[in-house]
Amino acid sequence: MHEKRRYERLPIKLNLEVSNLFKQDTPPVQTAEHTEIEVFDISKAGIGFMSETELPVGYYFNARLEFETTDEIILSVVKILYVTPIGDCGYRYGCEFVGLPSMYDHIFEEYGSSISSEEREQYNS
Asked: Please, are residues 48 and 95 in contact by the beta-carbon 8 Å criterion?
């Protein structure tokens, strides 16, 4: 099956924390303490992650992304597009970056070139 995405999803392991969720014309949502999320894939368009905490679709949060392949840090707003329950293990999310400038494209390209074809095959199978 061929994906119809603009950008290739790349496997990654990042841990982020979400403390505030926001949405226009809606009061911010405070999460219990700092909600930990485990990012499992990334592309120029967004991230996929898992969390034990249910987060509302359509809300936004601030993300700080640090790649092992560079010293640069990406600060971005992320919008939650969908959520899928994973049994008793938590939730799987799909999110998009909002207003991420193209000046960061080289970071994704460097990261993509650092991933072996075996890792890509394992992830996409």
From this structure: yes
SS3 label, residue 67: coil
Give the global pTM.
0.86
Residue reference for tokens 């640069």? 72
pLDDT in tens, the chain (125 residues): 455 668 888 989 888 888 788 998 887 777 756 788 899 999 999 999 999 988 999 999 999 898 888 888 899 999 999 999 998 889 999 999 999 999 999 999 999 999 988 888 777 76
Query: Over the Cα atoms of the chain, what is R_g?
Result: 15
d(CA 52, CA 86): 9
List, in order, residues 6 or more apart from 73 with CB less than 8 Å away. 64, 65, 66
Structural domains of the chain sorted by starting position, each given as residue range(s) with its CATH number in brackets: 10-115 (2.40.10.220)
